[in-house]
Amino acid sequence: MALATEKCGRDIDSVQLLAVSKTKPVTAIEQAIDAGLFAFGENYVQEGVDKVNYFASHPAAKQLVWHFIGPIQSNKTRPIAEHFDWVHSIDRLKTATRLNEQRPTTMAPLNVLLQVNTSGEASKSGISANEVIELAAAIATMPQLTLRGLMSIPQPETDYDSQFAAFKALADLLEQLKPHHPQLDTLSMGMSGDMEAAIAAGSTMVRIGTALFGARDYSNQA
């Protein structure tokens, strides 16, 4: 990550490393905390909730920030609203409404990102770019949600120019939203294989899993 930021003339502190800990045991997260990482991303609701609860009594508990980055089923919005600090995968008004209604008023508003389908692939989650303005305006009226920016998982590309173009499209979209939503400050884009292009295009948060924790074990998804 340091090399990627240096190459495009950005300060390394302008990009946050989100450690994607899905399917990883708590021992691996404990090692990551010892190494100075405090932001973790989870894809599966029950697994993520179990980890949030486990680490509630950890000495570093107040420093930990939990991000839900997976697809959201309507019947699982409550545990997400009650346990996580961030949600990256908002792609429907119904989902946002439920999270807003179910977020306890004793907790800080839930930080949310709109997931944008930049490739147009039907198999990819996310809203189209022309739906973003309307959904962002709706979320702006919800007191228990704070819209922070956009997230994307673009179509896998092997060449840098194609990767950069997809990420730049999302960065441009965020700039179009800022006059109406000045609090927007987050672009969640880039993983191990395309991190360099994402950072060059303006990513403020890269989601890194395998490069940190090794290959994932999908045998206990929940």
UniProtKB/TrEMBL annotation:
Keywords: Pyridoxal phosphate. InterPro entries: Ala_racemase_N (IPR001608), PLP-binding_barrel (IPR029066), PyrdxlP_homeostasis (IPR011078). Residues 15-216 form the Alanine racemase N-terminal domain. Its cofactor is pyridoxal 5'-phosphate. The modification N6-(pyridoxal phosphate)lysine is found at K22. Pfam families: Ala_racemase_N. GO terms for molecular function: pyridoxal phosphate binding. Pyridoxal 5'-phosphate (PLP)-binding protein, which is involved in PLP homeostasis. Belongs to the pyridoxal phosphate-binding protein YggS/PROSC family. This is Pyridoxal phosphate homeostasis protein.
